[in-house]
């Protein structure tokens, strides 16, 4: 039976990780994955997380099954974070939220749910997008197509192309939108452009699926979530996948959520019941540890304040790295104006380097980015940035 199974290709980004691990270059730098490293090049274990874990260890609890939709205090914290505590959206009961296995799990539960309610819909994702968007929605049975997004010549967003694609999409089309910190390009659309998107989505009766994987890494927690309010105001149905992998530096705990904004409380209750069927038949219910940590931090005022501060520190350090990257590239002899790097936002930069240049960076210098030219700015620090800049300058010569 299995003799005919063909070897599936490695995940393009995680595959690079393996290659990096095996590289013996002592100066190697990994800028390929979407992970935040601190100034010393280490994956941080946030203080707020450590304190929550100590509290939990001091009052140990048995680990029964969680409800299918997860820890109630976690779900309400996600809802409050995404839609605003005390907001009409939350108070009216119109949001159905479940605890998911990371942002990916939220997207997949949402995709399976949408496949049930509108099986013939098409999915549109940005060109380019996080690689797993296409794979995940295809795997859920959808036809996935692109809407224009990145404009390489202008170094920014092809907003006209994007709007035209949405204007001509069939009603019911699912549109995956990066709520902030677009991965991989680092270019977000402006608030006014979001208004245009929201208006078209409403008029064309499209189904927005917002991917909120980097809340707090752009301009701030509230600022990065502002677009959610625009969709609430437009009053149509939409979905939001939340990830805490980055914002809590809890990548391996698989902490995320899916929220579905509905027309009424009654509708939200019915939606929640279907989400639960999707979960029950897939992994039954989520694990306890990561969700308990996040719920404790978000629901305890002093831990919450500490988290916001730690997240702000990560955000600020990334911004400093952007500024330093531009200056150091210049100092390393790069003639081209690289200041666009400081106009990008979040963890990533589309560097504009070609595939050949990225391959040379990897093979000759041990500097690992993605073939598309994407580098993770959050993996730079004052110790590796000079070497990275000198290496980039050499391949640009
Ligand atoms: N969406 C985007 C845009 C991402 O970049 C990522 C993480 N790389 C995810 C979703 C998934 O996040 P998680 O690791 O929490 O599953």
UniProtKB/TrEMBL annotation:
Molecular function via GO: identical protein binding; L-tyrosine-2-oxoglutarate transaminase activity; pyridoxal phosphate binding
Pfam families, A to Z: Aminotran_1_2
InterPro entries hit by this protein: Aminotransferase_I/II_large, Asp_trans, NHTrfase_class1_PyrdxlP-BS, PyrdxlP-dep_Trfase, PyrdxlP-dep_Trfase_major, PyrdxlP-dep_Trfase_small
Aminotransferase class I/classII large domain boundaries: 27-392
GO cellular component, one term: cytosol
Gene3D superfamilies cross-referenced by the UniProt entry: Aspartate Aminotransferase, domain 1, Type I PLP-dependent aspartate aminotransferase-like (Major domain)
Top class in the EC scheme: transferase
Annotated SUPFAM superfamilies: PLP-dependent transferases (SSF53383)
Keyword terms: Aminotransferase, Pyridoxal phosphate, Transferase
Cofactor(s) this protein requires: pyridoxal 5'-phosphate
GO biological process, one term: L-phenylalanine biosynthetic process from chorismate via phenylpyruvate
EC number: 2.6.1.-
Record's subunit section: Homodimer.
Family: Belongs to the class-I pyridoxal-phosphate-dependent aminotransferase family.
Protein's recorded name: Aminotransferase
Species whose genome carries this gene: Caenimonas sedimenti
Lineage, highest ranks first: Bacteria, Pseudomonadati, Pseudomonadota, Betaproteobacteria, Burkholderiales
């Amino acid at each position: 039976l299995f003799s005919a199974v063909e070897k599936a290709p490695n995940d393009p980004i995680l595959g690079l990780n393996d290659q990096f691990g095996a590289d013996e270059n002592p100066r190697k730098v990994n800028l390929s994955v979407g992970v935040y490293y601190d100034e010393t090049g280490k994956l941080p274990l946030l203080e707020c997380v450590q304190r929550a874990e100590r509290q939990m260890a001091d009052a140990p609890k048995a680990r029964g099954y969680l409800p299918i939709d997860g820890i109630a205090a976690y779900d309400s914290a996600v809802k409050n974070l995404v839609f605003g505590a005390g907001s009409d959206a939350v108070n009216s009961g119109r949001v159905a939220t479940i605890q998911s296995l990371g942002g990916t799990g939220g997207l997949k539960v949402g995709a399976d749910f949408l496949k049930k309610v509108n099986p013939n819909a098409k999915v549109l994702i940005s060109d380019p997008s996080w690689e797993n968007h296409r794979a995940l929605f295809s795997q859920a049975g959808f036809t996935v197509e692109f809407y224009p997004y990145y404009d390489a010549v202008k170094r920014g967003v092809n907003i006209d192309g994007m709007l035209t694609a949405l204007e001509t999409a069939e009603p019911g089309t699912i549109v995956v939108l990066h709520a902030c910190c677009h991965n991989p390009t680092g270019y977000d659309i402006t608030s006014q452009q979001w208004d245009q998107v929201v208006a078209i989505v409403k008029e064309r009766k499209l189904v927005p699926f917002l991917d909120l994987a980097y809340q707090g890494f752009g301009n701030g927690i509230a600022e990065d979530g502002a677009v959610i309010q625009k969709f609430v105001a437009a009053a149509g149905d939409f979905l939001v996948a939340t990830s805490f992998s980055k914002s809590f530096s809890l990548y391996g705990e698989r902490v995320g959520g899916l929220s579905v904004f509905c027309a009424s409380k009654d509708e939200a209750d019915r939606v929640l019941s279907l989400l639960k069927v999707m979960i029950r038949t897939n992994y039954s219910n989520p694990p306890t540890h990561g969700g308990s940590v996040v719920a404790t931090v978000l629901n305890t005022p002093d831990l919450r304040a500490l988290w916001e501060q730690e997240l702000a520190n990560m955000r600020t350090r990334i911004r400093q790295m952007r500024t330093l990257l531009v200056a150091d590239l210049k100092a390393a002899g790069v003639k081209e104006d690289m200041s666009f790097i400081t106009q990008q936002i979040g963890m990533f930069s589309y560097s504009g380097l070609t595939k050949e240049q990225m391959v040379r960076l990897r093979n000759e210098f041990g500097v690992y980015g993605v073939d598309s030219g994407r580098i993770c700015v959050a993996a730079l620090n004052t110790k590796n940035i000079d070497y990275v800049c000198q290496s980039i300058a050499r391949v640009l010569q």
